[in-house]
Amino acid sequence: MTQRNLMQEIQTKLLDQGADKVALNYSSRTQEEFNLIYKQLNLLRTVQTNSLSLIVIKDSKQASTRINQFDPDSIDTAVAEVMQAVENSNPDPAFDISPPDEGSWTTGAPEPDVDKVILRLGEFSGQMADLYPSVLYDAILSHHKYYGAYLNSNGTFFEHDQGLYNLTVQFSARMGRKMSSFNYVGFAFPDLDRELLGINFTGEFIRQSTEQTVTQPVPSNFTGPVILAPFVVMQLLGDFLQRQVGDSGLLTKSSRFPDHLGQKILDEKLTVINDPQAEGICDPGYFSSDGFRMHRETVIANGVLKHYPINLYAANKTGKARTMGNVMNLIIPAGDTSLAELIRSIPQGILCMRVSAGNPNANGDISAVVKNSYYIKDGAIAYPISETMLNGNLVDMLNSISGFSSERYYSGDSAVPYLQVKDIYISRK
Amino acid sequence: MQTLALSKLLPAGTDYTELKVQENRNTTIALLNGSIVANSSASSAGLMCRTYAQGLWGLASSPLISEASLQQVTQKAIANARLLSSKAKDKLSKLPARPARGEYLLFSPKARVSNQQKIEFLMELDNYIASKYPELASRVVNFSQLEMEKQILTSDGGDLTGMTPRCFIVVMMSVVHEGQPLQHHDFIGGLGQWEDNFDQPSTLYPTIDKVYQELMEKKEAVFARGGTFDCVLDSRLAGILSHEAIGHTTEGDIVLKGSIAGDFLDQPVASELVTLIDVANTWEGRLCPQPVFIDDEGTEAVDAVIIENGILKSYMHDKESALRLGLPLTGNARGYDYSDEPLVRMRNTMIVPGKDKLQDMIASIEDGYYLIQPSNGQADWTSEFMFGVNQGYEIKNGALGKPIKETTISGIAFDLLKTISMVSDDMNWTSIGMCGKKQMMPVGMGGPAVKCKINIGGRS
Predict the structure, then answer these.
(1) How far apart are CA B371 and CA B452, in angstroms?
(2) Quick one: which of A170, B227, B381, B424 could link to B449 by a disulfide (CB 3.0–4.6 Å)?
(3) Looking at CA atoms only, how far is residue B189 from chain A in angstroms?
């Protein structure tokens, strides 16, 4: 039985038992995962997982269940339980499913090239031993064969067959009793054509750890410019998109921008796009979990909010149109200035490579410990820092952008440059 | 959960093998301004075999639970281990063992509460909030429950059948003050199922009232000043201090990866007032939030006394880290999902209470902060840590001053612990968070209030 047939069979059971509307999300994954632990090959995992979510709407009430056992008894039990649960829920006219549509996509290498995986890992560990003998690390190189499908009772069906590789490296340099903060890289990529250290600046980030074994705080507290590395931008902007203009912010009425469509809310230099077809994206989201085809959409154009990136329920609940859904492939255009030039423009500031932070509060206030980062003085990297915090407001930061780097980091599902903000309060211990 | 007769499925001729059948069950009911926005359940079940050959591991898993599936998975795991062994340079010797056998199924003995009854209970809480505090911009009442049920058999004699549940009700409120959103939340719950934790809605009313009062205080909150201050960390913060600041640096696998704690065994790392333990299952006669009697490698779980009167005494281990470091097993190996390999994970990490009174600790500070409620936290192998603080107050001349806005605190754990000068005689356990380390994992954490010097983020 195909996955589509299984989903249709379960949909029929739910409709026969009185459901008004049904939506099903299916996924299965086979993962071959090679683990270098303690700098050596240590573990090979072959993992199979699957999941099927059943979402039922009846009399404007909604309930859901998720299972991974698909024998007849397990399915019948899940159908009975979710139909009972939906009776217990309360009505909310905002619950709905997507309109009819259909699409099918296939991307990437469906099977791993095991010989090449072992070759690349051997090459990686050899280069690490030669170039960075003081660096302690774990590395995971995995291949993911993924199938995802969405089906609903309006006649919508999407499916995506996907294969990709993923690399995660966690590392720290140690020289005697001096050691760097640990750092990590993690990204998806389509093939094994390139050596691992050469992808996404991985070698450079590992090299940086070797000079971060001796650190000191900034010389004194000051207010100055900060260059945020792409991972930091993804972390902070992801929070902004969810809590200020996304589902949670609008539904809990904790957003500062609840009715700002078409208004300038951030710095005019900032443009934020969702684009599954963008160059360098190997982990595209072609359809959303609420059953819509994803298109290239500009969420924020030159600081102006063009779309609320919200799902169907949030749109219906807040009386807005669902025009694009949640961001799945975050794209920020590259700037025309290299990172080196951004650094040269700063009299005193910080190159912030990683933050360890509590979540910003509802208002956007944030304090964050900067990690694996550098003090900039007179247009040059002065020294790696520790025990230093940046303190500010996320909305204010995104309203005081002075530039973007021409280099971008490709995580597989996003492409983001370094971002320079003007004045953040920096404090030392 | 569907179980299998694992003993007849253990393969012969391996250095070590573990077989696992596991099901994780989640329940979520969420009310947003009175609407049930989530009424959902989820189950993830399957089986796994992990085997060890000449110092290397092979693992395979499948969601299909049957003897034939387990035999296939076992063959694949053995093949994976052999593939790696053929490439390996460093081959370890035999893994240590201290196997235990037991059944620890922590199902509630009370009559089951139905989905409908739970919804009625939660609706009553929501109605209480809505009627008493109508000026709120939004209110959330969220119930979540996780049950982890496992059947594990190891080739060295470990045998576990267990089910560990935990559940919580979180209450969150938000208000708009002078055009700016303010939020606050709190929770009730812990070890056990719904039936073990919740009886009458009215027992949660004091928590609701407290959340509201603290939210109102945030209207007057001021920014903390950035820098290092004398602070009292409330007992609600002590757990995350134990977990993030010290716990992660003393996990055996992290020690092997270069943790700074590897340099300090049997050396003073903290004030003599500090004793820190990763408790396996029971503290002062009561089950901890995440009791572990036998770990996922079939090892008997014992308390790991990490710091005793200021001296670093030991680490936490799985089989491989114990072998590599030549130290005793502690039973800290756990995996989250059926397909996950066991990793060194904390269980119930706590600082032992002292003799001081909280009010005396606050009174002893001229200019500092009293920090109460944590949010998320992160650790580092250098022992530099941070965690968010959702609620706190200034201390001026020995008395509480204005409430402060949300902030972040940080420090070098092995420096901070030496500044601890007072430890309170009370104790608070919590377990609502998930610890992330390749996999998610529920953990318990606890302790008393401590007075120390700590770096706080802020504006000045």
Answers:
(1) 11
(2) B424
(3) 23
